[in-house]
Design a protein that fits this description.
Length: 373
């Protein structure tokens, strides 16, 4: 198995049909036996076939793991590793899809090159050996995983999200091909788009913000806010192209700063009730913005000088037909007010909570969930 220490720089290819360069870009990174990590939806949409065709046209042996689940768990990663080890050793990994396949691809890289289990890499820079070169190909307009060195993998059983970060895990090359977003259903476009918007907002006010991260956040917000509504319509090529690039910039902003309380609140909702990550973040974001306004109001006004940023997010959620209360989710996910103390306790120990501009305790998280309920 050939591995290398990835550079801090990342090559980004942006443009319609740039997926067709996948074989060429794989060869540049030295890949000849490739594992694609993806999901059944990407297979069904025909996107996987495009990727495989681009690789095989350059004579690259291609192996595929298609069983990534939403919010991938340690089981997903272990299953992908088993596929990678089933034949001749692979020398490059491709994450193809939304955040789940890309996170699973990064997780696979950890275990394939460094051994052990995902819990061994919970935290930052715990991989001691070089990792395989990798390529990220996002097909949604939101997660920004392609820009980040962290794999978010849920622990089997507890479903606690483990943030496993290492610079060596970052994709060396990213392909941003707007044509891959054409088959994205309206609902998925709304969910991933609002997630990207949350990334831009939370990274902008994070306690680890810096001039570079804020530059990425601000540019991301401008693209995402202006194109969100248009990107929900069918055949919205230009808008989805702008959203795809905005989501990547928001991912860069996270990589250079961090997130905040909206993500801390969202993770327990996903772990306990299987609420889709973007839905959970969108649900909590307006309440967190209002809570933070005493400390971060001047930053929020830079994003939305003509009114309330929280109200703007509520409006975008309404456009995207996203639920506005926890109660609206309760029919499907059986959430009751008695669950709130448990949620608040779990939110308070989330990693991103410590980077929120206004410090929170369990009582504050309780009030946020009560406001959302």
């Amino acid at each position: 198995m050939h591995a290398f220490d990835s550079e801090l720089t990342q090559r980004v290819i942006f443009g319609d049909n740039s997926i067709e360069k996948l074989g060429e870009l794989t060869q540049i990174l030295g890949g000849s036996r490739v594992l694609i990590v993806t999901d059944r939806g990407i297979e069904k949409s025909g996107i996987l076939a495009r990727a495989v065709s681009a690789l095989q046209s350059t004579g690259i042996a291609t192996y595929v793991f298609v069983d990534v689940t939403p919010n991938p768990t340690t089981e997903d990663v272990e299953a992908a590793v088993a596929v990678a080890k089933a034949d001749v050793p692979i020398d490059l990994i491709i994450g193809l899809g939304g955040g789940s396949p890309m996170d699973c691809a990064k997780g696979t890289n950890f275990l394939l090159t460094n051994g052990g289990k995902m819990e061994d890499y919970w935290g930052t820079n715990k991989a001691k050996r070089p990792m395989l070169p990798s390529i990220g190909v996002p097909t949604t307009i939101g997660t920004g995983s392609e820009a980040q060195s962290f794999a978010l993998i849920a622990q089997r059983g507890t479903h606690i999200k483990m943030a496993c970060g290492d610079r060596k895990a970052k994709f060396g090359t990213v392909i941003l091909d707007p044509t891959l977003t054409e088959t994205l259903p309206r609902s998925v476009a709304a969910i991933t788009g609002i997630d990207a918007i949350a990334h831009a907002i939370e990274s902008f006010i994070s306690t680890r913000r810096n001039p570079m991260s804020q530059m990425f956040s601000q540019h991301a917000w401008q693209l995402l806010n202006a194109n969100f509504e248009a990107a929900l319509a069918p055949k919205s090529g230009a808008a989805r192209s702008n959203m795809l690039f905005g989501a990547y910039l928001a991912g860069l902003a996270i990589e250079n700063s961090m997130l905040g309380a909206a993500h801390a609140c969202a993770n327990p909702l996903t772990a306990r009730y299987d609420i889709i990550h973007g839905v959970a973040v969108a649900l909590m974001l307006p309440h967190v913005i209002r809570f933070n306004s005493t400390d971060a109001g001047k930053f929020y006004r830079q994003f939305h000088p003509d009114g309330s940023l929280a109200d703007r997010i509520v409006h975008l959620k309404q456009i995207g037909d996203l639920p506005n209360t926890l109660r609206a989710c309760a029919v499907q996910h059986t959430i009751t007010p008695t669950d709130i103390p448990i949620l608040a306790k779990e939110a308070s120990i989330q990693w991103t909570a410590q980077f929120n501009p206004r410090p929170l305790n369990i009582k504050d998280f309780t009030k946020l969930y009560e406001a959302a309920y």
